[in-house]
Amino acid sequence: MKKIISGMLICTVLLNSFSVIASGEELVKTETTGETGLVTQATSETTTNSTEDTSSVTEENTSERDSSTSSTKEESLDSSTNSTTEEHSSVSETNTTDSKTEASQSSEVEKKTIDQDEADYQEAAREGTNHKKGTYAMKNGLSSRVARATVANVYANDPNLPGKNFIDVSSWNGDISVAEYQKIKSYGVTGVSVKLTEGTWYVNPYAAGQIRNAKAAGLKVSAYHYSMYVSAATAQDEARYFAQAAANSGLDKNTIMFNDAEDPTLTNNGRNAHANSVAFNQQLKALGYKNDALYVGKWWLTNGYIDTSAFGRDRVWVAQYPYTPDSSMQWNNDHGAWQWSSQMYFPGLANYEGRPFDISMTYSNFLNMGNSSGPDLSKYYTTNPGRVVVMKDETFYNNADFTSKGAAVKKNTLVEVQGIEYSSTGYPRLVTPQGYLTARKDIVLAAIS
């Protein structure tokens, strides 16, 4: 019996011991999985220690993570700051580079423009061109031949025409004798504008004779320069060239001096035709030619290439050709003069149908060609009479202007005449072996052979 009881006790103890062990293992597993459960004291302590250890580890890990995160943020911030700085630096460098590039490109463009201007100017000089006034004035790019195909011929004896105040001539008109100028004058023309120069390379070889004979015929003379400048500097050079030619041709500083601004070279490649034209005229003034003026086509004014108010509109001569001009027309009367045809013919001139002239009318007193003073040529011999009888005591002179006296000549003396020359003011003189003698018909009489 005792053996049975003793065996039962042993079994009970073993079972309880097994249960505690099993329960401890289960709780450990529960703690490990994080699930909530009942714990024994021993296990609780173990669990507490485990939790503290876990917490410590967690805190350490968290601290490390925080530290790592903080470090990462700092690194990220530093990286971002560095990146931003680098970007700003890069942008700054890029902007600086772009600015330098733009400045360089601008400088290159400016240099190319200057080089192109110089090349164009040198090319024009090599060509040695001799343009006729109005070649481009009627319309940009139109040649005078094209213009002639679209503009009617006009004849000086037609009464139904705009005013015929003055003509302009160049080498294309060739030699014009005093008698021919007189015939032109008989149609009411009172002045002539003579082309002197072009660019800095051309002087009209006929200019001296055209000026001399026009003065001799009693016409008022002005001069013009066909401009080819590409800059203010070349404009000033051309003005000096023009002024020197005027002086060489015997034109005084009161002469009206026209800047003929019409060639496309003046506006090609965006050139400032207005500023350069102003520079030309200002240079003329600086040289003492105060009566500077401007010739320009209406097309240029319409397109704004030149502002004529800068020159004084009463000093501006505008070209515009109507297809059928008539006496009622007064185009461009807000300026000083109007060139209305390049196809004016003067009946009575030799081969007149093959000799067209440019014709203009004036509006302003400044450009009025009607104030010419000269002799009444009907009272003088203008062709060689061969021999003359002196009707009263007279004097021979050593020059055509009668500023230097020569020998005396008695009344009724028969004098041989070699030719006719004119004074600088337009008076005819008889050229004789003894010197110059008056050509007045009331003082000398043509001898009958």
Automatic annotation (TrEMBL):
- Under the GO molecular function aspect, what terms does this record hold? lysozyme activity
Q: Which family does it belong to?
A: Belongs to the glycosyl hydrolase 25 family.
Where's the DUF5776 domain?
A: 380-444
Bias (Low complexity):
43-60
Name the residue ranges with Basic and acidic residues bias: 62-76
- Taken from the record, one Pfam family name reads DUF5776
Residue ranges of the region described as Disordered: 31-137
Regions crossing the membrane: none
Q: Specify residue ranges for compositional bias: Polar residues.
A: 31-42
Protein name, please? Glycosyl hydrolase family 25
Q: Which InterPro entries match?
A: DUF5776, GH, Glyco_hydro_25, Glyco_hydro_fam25_subgr
PANTHER family per UniProt? GLYCOSYL HYDROLASE FAMILY 25 (PTHR34135:SF1), LYSOZYME (PTHR34135)
Q: Which UniProt keywords apply?
A: Glycosidase, Hydrolase, Signal
- Cell inner membrane: present as a keyword of the record? no
